[in-house]
Design goal:
The complex is a heterotrimer of chains A (513), B (85) and C (140). Chain A has 513 residues and is mostly helical. Chain A has helices at residues 11-15, 20-48, 60-94, 103-111, 113-123, 135-139, 144-172, 185-215, 230-264, 271-284, 300-312, 314-328, 337-360, 365-368, 372-402, 408-434, 448-481. Helices cover 68% and strands 0% of the residues of chain A. Chain A is globular. With 140 residues, chain C is an alpha+beta fold. Chain C has one helix and ten strands; from the N terminus they run H-E-E-E-E-E-E-E-E-E-E. The termini of chain C are far apart. Classes of the chains: A mainly alpha (513), B mainly alpha (85), C alpha+beta (140). At the A-C interface, helix 3, helix 6, helix 11, helix 12 and helix 14 of A face helix 1, strand 7 and strand 9 of C.
C-alpha cells in the first residue's frame, strides 16, 4: 500500500523514492493526469466538430495543435506510463524479487517524463503525432516543433531504460524456484512488450535526430531537392511505431490475464498458449509496418508483402481471445467492476482487429486511408481495448495500492457509460470514414450525413466524459474515505486469490501486511 | 434449418470472384469499374467480419449469462477454496 | 499442457483459413485494378498548399476544377510542389499520395457523369481541411 490520502505520506518520501511501488505510484498518478489532459483536448476537438463552421476554436492552426497534442499525450504520456505503472508495481512481486533490477535507473526513467510532457504541452506542435516531413521540416512553426522533438527524445530514452529494467528483472532476478514457464502471464506480457520496445525504438530515435538536423538545415535526409526522400522518414517512423502499438496492447492483454481467470474462479485455459501467442506476436509485429504507407506509391509486390505480414499477426491475437473465452467456460463469474472492463475490452478488441483486417486488404485501403474509419479503428484499440483493460486493472489494483475499496456502484456506472460512449463514438467513426470524411480536418462541408454522424460521435464523447468524471471522483474520494478492504480477498472471490506474495513498501508498511 | 445459411454465404463469397475472373477482359469503353470492384470486396469482407463477430459476441454474451454467479444453475468450480490459481 | 487442446487447434485453423481467403481476394482485386490501360489519357496533377492544378495531355490547364469525359480511361501523374498531399476523389475511390520528388500514378474510368468532390487526404497544414476541387464528368 503506497497511497494513503487520509494520512498523507510526506511528498518528498515518494518523489525521492526508488522503491518499485513508489515509482509505480508516480507513474500511475502521472498517467491518470495525462489521461484527463489528453481527454480535455479530445473534448475540445469533438465540440468543434459538432457542426460545420467554427464553434469554439478560432482557427485551423489551434485545431491542428490540439489534435497533435491529443495524440502525443494519449500515447506517450497516458498509455505508456500507465503500463509502466502496473509493471513497476507488480513485476517484482510476480517474480518474487525485492525490487526492480536497477531501482535508481527506474526512478530516473520516470523523472524524464514530466519535463518531456512540459516540452510537448508548452510547445503544442501542429504536425500530427507522427511529424511527417516535408511538412514537419519546412512548414511547421518553431519552437513548437523542436520542443516536440526534444520531448520525444526524452520519452524514447525513458522507455528504453524502463524496458531494460523489466527484461533484466524478469529474466535475471526471478526467484530461483520459478522456471521461466511458470512466470505469470502479466509478467510475460511485460517481457514481450519490453523486448519489442528495445528492438524497435532506436530506429525512430535515429529518425527523430535526422528530422531535427533537417530542420536546422544541416542535412537533407528528407529533402528531395538535395537527393533526400520524405518517404524514408515514414519507413523509419512506422518501423518503430507499428511494433510500438503492440507494446501498448500486450500489457493490457496481460492485465486481462490477471482479471479474467480470477473473476471466473478458474485457472487460465492454457498458460503456454498465452506465452506462445505473446512471443509470436512480438516477432510478427515487425513484419507489417508499411501497411501504414499503402498510399505513398508502393508497388503491388511491396504492398502484398506487408499485407501478408499484417495478417500473420492476427492468429496470435485470436489465440488470446480463445484463451479468455475458454477460461470463462464452466466458471462461476463474479461481475465486479474489473471483470466488466476486461470483458468489454475483449469484445472491443475483436472489433478493432476486424477493422484492421479490412484496412490491410490492399484495395480496401483506397476507401479507408486517412479517413475517419482509421480514427475509429485505432481508437477501438487504444480506448476500447487498452484503456478498458488498464482502467479495469486500476480498479483491481485499487485495494492493493490504498487498502480501501472503491465505490462499486460508481465503477459500474463508469463502465456502462464508457461502453455506450465508446460504441457510439468509435463505431460511428468507421461509418463516417466510409462516407469519405478525411482525418485531421478543422472543418467539413455541409454534407447532411457527415453532420449527423459527427453529432452522434460528439455526443458519444460527452458520454465518455461523464463516465471519466465519475471515475475521478471515485478514485479520489475512495482513496481518502473508502471502506477498508479485506486484504485477503477484497472482491469476495473465495480462497486466497489476491497476490500471494505480499510486498512491503520499506517506508510505510508494517510487517504482517 | 439455420445451417442452410452457412453454405449459401460461402458459395456467394467464392462465386463472386470466380465470375469476375471469367469476365476480366477489357475493351475501350468497358474498363474495369474500380469503385464497384473495391466496394464489392468490402461488402464481402464485412459479411465475414459480422458473421465471425456475431459468433464471438454471441459466445461472450451467452457465457456471461450462463456462468454468472447469480445463475440458479451456477455451481462452484473445482478450483475454488484451493487458493492461489 | 495437461488437457486436450483440439478445440483451440480447430479454431486457429479456421482463423488462418479466413485470413488466407481475405489475403487472396485482396490480391485478386488489387491485381484487377492495378494495371492502367494503354489508351488511358495522362493527366498531370499538381498538389501544393492549398490547391489542386491539372494539365491535360493536350496542354490544357485547369485550376481547382477538372473536366473529364465519361467512360474514358484516365491515368493521373501526381506530384507535389511542397509538402505531402493526397489526391482523392472519394466517389470513384481514386486515392494516391502526392510526394515531392516523385511522381505517383493511379488510373480510373468515371462511369457516371455529374459533379464530384476532390479533396486532400494527407495532412498538409493550415488549410488542409479545405484543399478541395471539383470534378466534372461530361458525357452520356
Amino acid at each position: 500500500m503506497v497511497l494513503t490520502l487520509a494520512k498523507p505520506r510526506p511528498i518528498w518520501q515518494i518523489m525521492f523514492s526508488t522503491h518499485h511501488t513508489d515509482v509505480g505510484l508516480m507513474y500511475l498518478i502521472f498517467s491518470i493526469m495525462a489521461l484527463f489532459i489528453g481527454g480535455a483536448m479530445a473534448i475540445a476537438i469533438r465540440v468543434e466538430l459538432f457542426a460545420p463552421g467554427a464553434q469554439i476554436i478560432a482557427d485551423a492552426m489551434t485545431f491542428n495543435r490540439l489534435f497533435t497534442s491529443h495524440g502525443t499525450t494519449m500515447i506517450f504520456l497516458f498509455l505508456l506510463p500507465s503500463a509502466s505503472a502496473v509493471g513497476n508495481y507488480l513485476v517484482p512481486i510476480m517474480v518474487r524479487y525485492k525490487d526492480m533490477a536497477y531501482p535508481k535507473l527506474n526512478a530516473i526513467a520516470f523523472w524524464m517524463i514530466p519535463p518531456a510532457a512540459v516540452l510537448v504541452w508548452l510547445g503544442m506542435a501542429d504536425f500530427g503525432w507522427y511529424a511527417n516531413p516535408p511538412y514537419s521540416v519546412i512548414s511547421s512553426p518553431a519552437p513548437a516543433a523542436e520542443m516536440w522533438i526534444f520531448g520525444l527524445k526524452l520519452l524514447g530514452v525513458s522507455s528504453i531504460l524502463g524496458s531494460i529494467n523489466f527484461v533484466v528483472t524478469i529474466l535475471k532476478c526471478k526467484h530461483p524456484d520459478m522456471s521461466i514457464g511458470k512466470v505469470p502471464l502479466l509478467a510475460w506480457s511485460f517481457l514481450a512488450a519490453s523486448t519489442i520496445a528495445i528492438m524497435a525504438l532506436p530506429t525512430f530515435a535515429a529518425g527523430l535526430l535526422m528530422l531535427l538536423t533537417d530542420r536546422l538545415g544541416a542535412t537533407g535526409f528528407f529533402n528531395p531537392l538535395v537527393g533526400g526522400d520524405p518517404i524514408a522518414y515514414q519507413h523509419l517512423f512506422w518501423f518503430t511505431f507499428h511494433p510500438e502499438v503492440y507494446v501498448l496492447v500486450i500489457p493490457a492483454i496481460g492485465m486481462m490475464y490477471e482479471i479474467v481467470p480470477r473473476f471466473s474462479r478458474r485457472p487460465i485455459f492454457s498458460h503456454s498458449s498465452g506465452v506462445f501467442a505473446f512471443v509470436l506476436l512480438s516477432i510478427v509485429a515487425f513484419a507489417s509496418w508499411a501497411h501504414h504507407m499503402f498510399a505513398t506509391g508502393m508497388s503491388f509486390t511491396e504492398k502484398t508483402v506487408f499485407m501478408v505480414g499484417t495478417l500473420a499477426a492476427v492468429p496470435a491475437s485470436a489465440m488470446h481471445v480463445f484463451n479468455f473465452l475458454a477460461t470463462m467456460w464452466n466458471g462461476r463469474i463474479k461481475f465486479a467492476t474489473p471483470m466488466m472492463w476486461a470483458i468489454g475490452g475483449i469484445a472491443l478488441f475483436f472489433s478493432a482487429g476486424a477493422g484492421g483486417v479490412v484496412n490491410t486488404a490492399m484495395p480496401l485501403d483506397f476507401i479507408t486511408h486517412d479517413s475517419y474509419w482509421v480514427v475509429g479503428h485505432f481508437h477501438l484499440f487504444v480506448f476500447g481495448t487498452i484503456a478498458f483493460g488498464t482502467i479495469g486493472f486500476f480498479y483491481y489494483l485499487f485495494p492493493y495500492v490504498t487498502r480501501r475499496m472503491y465505490n462499486e456502484k460508481l465503477g459500474v456506472v463508469h463502465f456502462i457509460l464508457s461502453m455506450v460512449g465508446a460504441s457510439l463514438t468509435f463505431f460511428t467513426q468507421h461509418l463516417l470514414g466510409l462516407y469519405g470524411m478525411p482525418r485531421r480536418v478543422f472543418d467539413y462541408p455541409e454534407i447532411p450525413e457527415w453532420i449527423a454522424m459527427n453529432q452522434i460521435i460528439s455526443i458519444g464523447a460527452m458520454i465518455i466524459l461523464v463516465g471519466m468524471g465519475i471515475f475521478l471522483v471515485n478514485l479520489i474520494y475512495s482513496s481518502a474515505r473508502g471502506k477498508p478492504a479485506n486484504m485477503n480477498d477484497p472482491f469476495g472471490l473465495g480462497g486466497k486469490y489476491y497476490y500471494p506474495y505480499s510486498q512491503l513498501n520499506p517506508h510505510h508498511d508494517k510487517a504482517g501486511y | 434449418m439455420r445451417t442452410i445459411w452457412a453454405p449459401i454465404i460461402l458459395i456467394v463469397l467464392f462465386a463472386t470472384p470466380m465470375i469476375q475472373l471469367v469476365f476480366a477482359s477489357e475493351t475501350p469503353g468497358e474498363y474495369v469499374n474500380r469503385a464497384q470492384e473495391i466496394w464489392n470486396l468490402f461488402f464481402r469482407m464485412m459479411t465475414i467480419a459480422f458473421v465471425v463477430g456475431g459468433v464471438i459476441a454471441g459466445t461472450i454474451v451467452w457465457q456471461v449469462w450462463r456462468f454468472r454467479e447469480s445463475n440458479p444453475k451456477a455451481k462452484p468450480t473445482p478450483y475454488e477454496d484451493k487458493g492461489d490459481l | 499442457m495437461g488437457h486436450s487442446n483440439w478445440p483451440e487447434w480447430i479454431y486457429v485453423a479456421v482463423v488462418i483459413a479466413l485470413l488466407v481467403y481475405v489475403g487472396a481476394e485482396a490480391w485478386n482485386i488489387e491485381n484487377l485494378i492495378d494495371h492502367a490501360p494503354e489508351d488511358a489519357e495522362i493527366i498531370k496533377v499538381t498538389a501544393q498548399q492549398w490547391f489542386w492544378s491539372f494539365e491535360h495531355a493536350d496542354g490544357t490547364k485547369e485550376i481547382g476544377e477538372l473536366h473529364l469525359k465519361k467512360d474514358h480511361a484516365y491515368k493521373f501523374e501526381i506530384h507535389s510542389k511542397d509538402v505531402n498531399h493526397n489526391f482523392n476523389i472519394p466517389e470513384f475511390l481514386v486515392l494516391m499520395d502526392a510526394v515531392p520528388g516523385r511522381i505517383n500514378t493511379v488510373w480510373f474510368s468515371p462511369n457516371e457523369s455529374g459533379e464530384f468532390d476532390i479533396q486532400c487526404r494527407e495532412y498538409c497544414g493550415l488549410i488542409h481541411y479545405n484543399m478541395r476541387a471539383k470534378l466534372f464528368v461530361e458525357g452520356s
